[in-house]
User: What shape does this take?
Amino acid sequence: MSVGEMLAATVPMAKTLNLEFLETTAERAVLRLPDQKDFHNHVGGPHAGAMFTLAESASGAIVLAAFGKLLDRAVPLAVKAEIGYKKLAMGEVTATATLGRPIADIVAELDAGGRPEFPVDIAIRRADGAVTGEMSILWTLRPHS
Assistant: This one.
């Protein structure tokens, strides 16, 4: 099962928005929110909540790609999220997520008995490449008891 299929199966909201998983690696995740009238706001672009979900899903995809092998030891959880809407988004938008700490450092902290926290930064872009939003999510890997 691909990361996109796993995320869509375990997080129904991602499937509800018809998110498209363009790239899902441990280094980068890129998801697209197609232009869908049902998810428009009052000015005809994607609703802020849909863009939040797009960006959060991109962060979840990179976390699963990077740490999916550790699910038997720890559960990934979003701790905090902050989003800034920079420009008007119209049409389809994409979210590109990147990890803010090296994977090896995060795994080493978990191996040492810690509960590592790490940021995932996401840029939301419209089709012309303009950044319409930026999001940062602080994630943790909570060890199983």
